[in-house]
Specification:
The chain contains 20 helices and 18 strands. By secondary structure, the protein is α+β, with helices and mostly antiparallel strands. The chain has a seven-stranded mixed sheet with strand order 2-3-4-1-7-8-9, sandwiched between helices. A six-stranded antiparallel sheet has the order 11-10-15-12-13-14. The chain has a three-stranded antiparallel sheet with strand order 16-18-17.
């Protein structure tokens, strides 16, 4: 072999990531569709280059939509090179078969979809060369060097690839068969999706509950007392009874404080961010859509400012604890946060560690590279998302928020009135939140303390009747819909099921976006607070969908089984047989 030039081919998901790897590895020679030098060739996929073939590839008769031809259940799956990216596939295929390329490194995103993107190209190109896997949670130079020094055997990710294939093929079968079945039955085009349809059903159900809601009036009597606070009665449903109580209080004009309870309470810091909680906060505080947030977070990752964003974990593993401890200290110094604001327990990062709850990637964290960055130079969207991640990281390792809650009970005209007061004892993590997110939160004073009082009689300065009414359920925002997707069917899932709900953190934003693009959902409201409402087209689709397809239970059950396939606890064939049987049954029993 001596004197023979050999090269290693590195395949990434995006050109920008390829450039980062090339820079760290000293690869400078720019070619058409790849870079070459220092014994490496670095190329990229540009997303999905290889896709599942359409039904007509299996049989010409499938060009026409006909119920009699259903179900369509391929026995040998066929794939096609995407027309829009044919050139890049050709480049990769040529590079894979180059005589001097001895081995390949799969360096696509470290997750289910990244694994699928690479493997489909590798298979479609007919490549047989050995493959290693690069698995990173950070795009920092040191992390990249370390990753390339500790490549994993590709076989370690075979089960992940099988789970990705199952997910893609099951989605194809549901989409193709159900869309054709219901479109033919109802004489209009109806697009059905495994995650999309149950998500849409949630919004339709919510709007139906709002429309059916009948508000009920209630009344309270409020007493302004000479002791300097206002006490309120219970809710009274009859106005006559409330007015009678008001008259009696005005007649007595004196109230007896009967009980004062003071209780110290504390709120632990919130956990670190996973993608869904980051998307929810960004929607609630900034009005960003889940899709926008993922785009900003991905860009921050590629700029080496944060770790891998498509994670479903809010924790770090034991081996990352020291790194987080040091990072937190450096960030405090960077932001000018004093040690008094922080937890002095040792180590304060302990509550962020849970090896059992770290799946493919740990929680989203800022990187050390972020400390050398001019945050003001970042685009506004990215800067705001980075601020949220910085704040959440520091909050997670801060002291609990402690306060004193006072509950006071007073009596007038035989009725109990109550007043509540809260007094801050130690701001803890809320001090960090206030300091880092001051411009985003724009919060008014949250707590009001009750004046010091004793159990005794006190005068009534003023008594009034207040009218209110019960509120309907709220329209979904992206924040609350993401939460519902994440927790969907939790009641029917086993308690120890790790990934509940429908979709995954990496796909939920795309599902919502697709529903909007296809005209099933629309965003309404001002710039910051937009609600998601089903359109007439969306409502019509759910009206004709059988419960099985619109229920979150089936999809959540699939997610659990896909995770089992990913872990090698369930055979892919078993999963696919279940899907085949379900589709066949649906086609045969739907009229």
């Amino acid at each position: 072999m001596e004197g023979t030039l050999i090269a290693i081919l590195i395949v990434t998901e995006k050109p920008s990531v390829a450039m980062s790897y090339a820079k760290v590895l000293g690869v400078q020679g720019r070619q058409d569709g790849y870079l070459e030098g220092s014994g490496y060739i670095v190329s990229w996929c540009i997303g999905h280059l290889v896709e599942l073939a359409p039904p007509s590839t299996y049989d010409e008769k499938y060009v026409k939509w006909n119920v009699a031809d259903l179900p369509i259940l391929p026995q040998r799956w066929q794939y096609l090179v995407s027309a829009s990216t044919k050139k890049q596939f050709g480049i990769l295929k040529k590079l894979m078969h180059r005589a001097d390329v001895e081995s390949i490194i799969c360096a696509t995103d470290a997750g289910r979809e990244g694994e699928l993107i690479f493997r489909l190209v590798y298979e479609q190109a007919g490549c047989k060369k050995p493959v290693s896997r690069l698995w990173l949670s950070s795009m920092e130079d040191n992390a990249i060097r370390e990753g390339f020094a500790n490549l994993k055997p590709s076989t370690e990710y075979d089960a992940l690839y099988q789970a990705a294939l199952c997910r893609e093929r099951a989605d194809w079968m549901v989409g193709i068969n159900c869309s054709r079945l219901f479109s033919c039955l109802y004489g209009r085009p109806l697009a059905v999706g495994r995650v999309m349809t149950p998500t849409l059903a949630m919004t339709v159900e919510r709007e139906a509950a709002i429309a059916a809601f009948v508000p009920e009036k209630f009344y309270t009597v409020a007493l302004e007392l000479t002791s300097g606070f206002v006490a309120s009665s219970r809710r009274i449903s009859e106005k006559d009874a409330a007015e009678k109580l008001l008259a009696e209080c005005r007649k007595e004009m004196v109230s007896t404080i009967q009980k004062i309870t003071r209780k110290e309470k504390s709120e632990n810091p919130p956990p670190l961010y996973d993608l869904t909680t980051l998307q929810r906060d960004a929607n609630r505080l900034l009005g960003y859509s889940a899709h926008q947030t993922l785009k900003y977070a991905q860009s921050l990752y590629e700029k080496k400012l944060t770790t891998y964003p498509r994670t479903d974990s809010c924790y770090i593993a034991d081996e990352d604890e020291e790194m987080l401890e040091e990072l937190a200290e450096e960030m405090e110094h960077f932001l000018g946060i004093t040690p008094e604001d922080m937890d002095d327990a040792a180590p304060r990062t302990r509550r962020t560690v849970n090896r059992e709850k770290v799946t493919d990637h740990h929680a989203i964290l800022p990187t050390r590279s972020m400390l050398q960055t001019d945050l003001d130079a970042l685009p506004k969207g990215e800067r705001n998302i980075l601020k949220l991640i910085i704040a959440r990281t520091l909050m997670a390792v801060s002291k609990p928020f402690r306060y004193l809650e006072t509950l006071l009970t007073t009596e007038c005209a035989g009725e109990e009135f109550t007043a509540k007061g809260k007094e801050i004892l130690e701001e803890g993590w809320k001090a960090v939140e206030r300091k880092v997110l001051a411009d985003i939160l724009n919060r008014k004073k949250e707590f009001t303390a009750l004046p010091p009082v004793e159990e005794s009689e006190c005068g009534i300065l003023h008594a009034e009747l207040k009218e209110g009414q019960t509120s309907p359920p709220k329209h979904y925002t992206e924040d609350t819909l993401l939460h519902s997707m994440e927790t969907a069917s939790a009641e029917s899932m086993p308690e120890d099921a790790e990934r509940q709900g429908i979709g995954t953190p990496a796909t939920r934003a795309a599902t919502i976006e697709k529903l909007v693009q296809k005209g099933f959902l629309e965003r309404k409201g001002d710039k910051k607070t937009k609600v998601l409402l089903p359109t007439d087209k969306g409502k019509a689709l759910i009206t004709v969908m059988p419960e099985e397809i619109q229920s979150a239970d089936m999809t959540a059950d699939w997610e659990t089984k896909l995770l089992r396939v990913e872990r090698g606890e369930m055979e892919p064939e078993t999963f696919m047989t279940e899907i085949n049987d379900m589709i066949s049954s649906l086609v045969n029993t739907t009229e």
